[in-house]
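for the writeup, i need someone to sanity check this before i put it in the appendix. the sequnce is what the collaborator sent (i think, or maybe the updated version? ugh). structure was predicted straight from it, no edits. if anything looks off just tell me and ill rerun, i have time this weekend
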Amino acid sequence: MNALILIAEDESEIAEIIRAYLEREGFRTIHAANGQTALEFHRALRPDLVLLDVSMPCVDGWGVLAEIRRRDQTPVIMVTALDQDLDKLQALRIGADDYVVKPFNPVEVVARVKAVLRRSGTTDAAIIRIGQLEIDIDGHRASVMHGGQAENIGLTLTEFRLLVHMARNPTRVFTRGDLVDACLPGAEALDRTVDSHMSKLRRKLDQAGATGMPEGVRGVGYRLASHS
């Protein structure tokens, strides 16, 4: 699976902006609104990188960073409004891998995440597996495994784009607008256009044995699967 980024940020609007930019680049994300939750998610989910705000409720960012460093060497990027040199030095002394000061450009944050992951040896997988479904992104191929044998699925370019986009975060519910923006550039943002592509994709997956994918969520949109 693609790298999982834990966003520890108590300001929901900032967290949502970071999440949107990271997921657009194919990362999986999880959000913690306070330091205690961040530590619980870190222990349970073992993220590949943590974006960590300093001014967090319950346990502040310094405390979260120190505890993470007692546990392991998960890469951590501090995200904060504090721009004093002493704060930067403290972050690096405790064990942060990088430091981003608010207000920031989300594109820069994504670039920092990629750079730190490269330095740490963590890379995005070119193959995504969800149950029997296997997606080879570089090979532009999707297949369903049956007893060790792969049955290839003939998908159009748009169907493949939709499948890959949802597979990168399979339990997330995507609105039709999300899918148009990410996978149908230049297309009319019509619900029936998305529904038509998703219906054809579901039929092909069903025929290959990956039944029930993607799922329609009434009044919202689609998700690939209930469980990743």
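The first strand starts at residue 4 and ends at 8. The chain has two domains: 4-120, 127-223.
thx in advance!!
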